[in-house]
Design a protein that fits this description.
The chain is of the alpha/beta class and 299 residues long. It has two domains: 175 residues, HUPs (Rossmann fold); 101 residues, Glutamyl-tRNA Synthetase, domain 3 (Alpha-Beta Complex). Helix content is 34%, strand content 15%. It has a five-stranded parallel beta sheet. Helix 8 runs parallel beside helix 9. The longest helix is centred in the N-terminal third of the chain and has 16 residues. The protein is elongated, with a radius of gyration of 20 Å. The structure holds zinc ion. Zinc ion (ZN) binds next to loops.
Length: 299
């Protein structure tokens, strides 16, 4: 008997799937199937203002046209507020999270005064102003504490990626105390993902390499909440004409599903799978599972 393997694909309904998002969807499906596991779909609509109405249905239809069917009805993050709240309460009660009263300008001013002004492309590392209390200000956001209480030591997360190998991040220095609940009242992505992966019993996370940088924060949150850490695999990105990751922002076209096998084949090539000749998506997928198992075996 082996433990039940559960994989997942977790798109944000901010636009239809494109060639880049299909790579992650296909890899997560193949991986779950190759390990005789289940594959679940999660609609990451926690950032409601960015989501497009009805787009979740479009994505489910796109996946269905490619033969990628969820083993359970999709979980929608917009319905998960109570679970996120319960997790946040636990972190607050344990002293691992704290309210922050800083505005973005407060943070920039504090960093500039400390000689650490943020560069244009770099997210600001929170200077820790409210770790010791709100100093009379109203709470705005809730943050996770990323330094060991009392000792003041950095938290360094070592983790393993099944494709990229050994990884390490000093979360304290690289990210700082990150937001769990935003000032606008929305749940932060990191908290929602960690709570939902655990609730769905996800054992194998397979997703795009652009999300690899989030993994140490998620592992830190898993440990803080005493939740299991899944295995991670981050897939290669598809680059747009501008050399950046293909995205809706740089004009990625929605998947052309007139020829679904061709779309699958293109995604498979990015993953390093050999060409597979098959008349239908179902037949193609059936052959792709052992091919995936073959390339994932070994050191
Ligand atoms: Zn603050």
């Amino acid at each position: 008997m082996t433990a039940a393997v559960v994989g997942r694909f977790a798109p944000s309904p901010t636009g239809p799937l494109h060639a880049g998002s299909l790579v992650a969807a296909l890899a997560s499906w193949l991986d779950a199937r190759a390990l005789h596991g289940r594959w679940l779909l999660r609609i990451e609509d926690v950032d409601a203002p960015r989501c497009l109405p009805g787009m979740d249905r479009v994505i489910v239809q796109q996946l269905a046209a490619l033969g990628l069917l969820s083993d359970e009805p999709p979980l929608r993050q917009s319905t998960r507020g109570a679970a996120y709240r319960a997790a946040l309460e636990r972190l607050l009660a344990a002293g691992l999270a704290y309210p922050c009263g800083c505005t973005r300008r407060d943070i920039e001013r504090t960093l500039a005064a400390a000689g650490r002004p943020r560069t244009r492309f770099e997210a600001a590392v929170y200077p820790g102003t409210c770790r010791t209390g709100l100093h009379g200000r109203a709470p705005r956001a809730i943050r996770l504490r990323t330094c060991r209480q009392g000792a003041g030591g950095d938290i360094v997360i070592d983790w393993h990626d099944r494709r990229l190998g050994a990884q390490q991040q000093n979360v304290t220095r690289a990210v700082g105390d990150f937001v769990l609940k935003r000032a606008d009242g929305l749940w932060a992505y990191q908290l929602a993902v960690v709570v939902d992966d655990a609730a769905q019993g996800v054992t194998h996370v397979v997703r795009g390499e652009d999300l690899a940088d989030n993994t140490p924060r998620q592992i830190l949150l898993q440990r803080a909440l005493a939740l299991p850490t899944p295995f991670y695999l981050h897939t290669p990105l598809v680059l747009g004409r501008d050399g950046h990751k293909l995205s809706k922002q740089n004009g990625a076209a929605p998947l052309d599903l007139a020829e679904p096998v061709r779309a699958l084949q293109a995604a498979a090539a990015v993953l390093g799978l050999p060409p597979i000749a098959a008349p239908t998506p179902a037949a193609w997928l059936q052959q792709a599972v052992p091919a995936w198992a073959g390339i994932m075996r070994g050191p």
